[in-house]
Amino acid sequence: MFCQSNETYEREVKAVQTLLSSRVDGILVSITKVTKDFSHFRKIQDNGIPLVFFDRICNELDTDRVIVDDEQGAFDAVEHLIKTGAKILFIFQGRRIFRLGKTERMDT
What DSSP character marks residue 60? Predict the structure, then answer.
């Protein structure tokens, strides 16, 4: 199952309720930028369901996490392209408001 909050806390909470009622075996989450109350994620833990955060990390909960170092990843990719003979490089990226990874962490 996939759920999309569209950066809305209320949709995030509803998605968690849907996943819990669907009796999923585990949940991977990138929390919204506006989430300040993490009680819906505590419900996941209380039900014994494995919970893993990626990209945006909630330090308030003890969970597994997947974090990407965007800067190092970009550096490694460009270095590889240069070493393999690339001469003209171009970067295509989305809007800056969607910047995720190690450079954006949620500190609670």
Answer: T
